[in-house]
């Protein structure tokens, strides 16, 4: 396992992080014993960064994670969670709500502090409010020792760039924007580096797009993008390879990212993914997949308020 300092913070994180959305059932039902085994397997293998949110499973992921971490040395992992998003269409970035959200998360997670607190999916909110109200409220919690670093997350890169350019944030978490299919995060990395902002790259498998199983029904990708990724997965299978393996290896090779966060729902997937990280991507297979993806390379989907995507 490779460990890197997370710029903008005093934290050090593993190069691959455990995404805890599956613990909340976002990708299918998961038994509590399996969830605990998944977390413990990741920790035993050297994964130190765990990323969760009250939105995942509508608080279920935090509760399950808190149970799984009971009795584990608190200094052995970096715990990241979020505020601001609580349901599919429920967002509240007000100072009062995010402060209460942190208090609620602390109880569910069974800890006295959160290492990294993040404003979740800021593109659904008023960015002025995030800058002028949300982030200052979270900084107040940092002064009290309840959180150790403050960041933002979202899908549209313009929203992340806008807020990071206007307010002091420690980290940004971008998802689905540095994958085999979409690489638009890379040109933004110098902007964040100049400001000593740590970058986390989440969903390197495109929230299921770049897997044999394909994305869940709720995935916002277009039919054309789904079809192109399915064709790429089928090609890899014919070649005796796996698209998910290629995608993970590709994403982990990006310099300038502190950690790549991958959702994992069982111990077998943890062991498999960590084994894959020890190998470089197959460049010939990558070139063939790029050709298959064709005009769907760098294609995305609309998310949040339209004004926050410009």
Structure report:
This protein is an alpha/beta fold. It has one domain (3-309): TIM Barrel (Alpha-Beta Barrel), CATH 3.20.20.100. Helices cover 38% and strands 15% of the residues. It contains ten helices and twelve strands. The chain has helices spanning 32-44, 60-68, 95-109, 127-143, 157-166, 189-194, 223-238, 243-252, 267-276, 283-293; strands spanning 3-5, 12-14, 16-19, 49-51, 78-83, 85-87, 90-91, 116-119, 150-154, 171-175, 198-202, 259-263. It has an eight-stranded parallel beta barrel with strand order 3-4-5-8-9-10-11-12. It has a two-stranded antiparallel ribbon with strand order 1-2. Strands 6-7 form a two-stranded antiparallel ribbon. Strand 6 and strand 7 form a beta hairpin. Helix 1 (32-44) crosses helix 2, helix 3 crosses helix 4 and helix 4 (127-143) crosses helix 5. The chain starts with a strand and ends in a 17-residue tail after the last helix.
Summarize the structure.
The chain has helices at about 30-45, 60-70, 95-110, 125-145, 155-165, 190-195, 225-240, 245-250, 265-275, 285-295, and strands spanning about 5, 10-15, 15-20, 50, 80-85, 85, 90, 115-120, 150-155, 170-175, 200, 260-265.
CATH topology: TIM Barrel
Q: How much helix, percentage-wise, in residues? A: 25-40%
Largest sheet, strands/sense/barrel: 8 strands, parallel, barrel
The radius of gyration computed from the alpha-carbon positions, rounded to a whole number of angstroms, is 18 Å
User: Which class do the helix and strand fractions yield?
Assistant: alpha/beta
Domain NADP-dependent oxidoreductase: 16-292
Protein name: Aldo/keto reductase
InterPro entries: AKR (IPR020471), LGALDH-like (IPR044479), NAD(P)_OxRdtase_dom_sf (IPR036812), NADP_OxRdtase_dom (IPR023210)
Pfam families: Aldo_ket_red
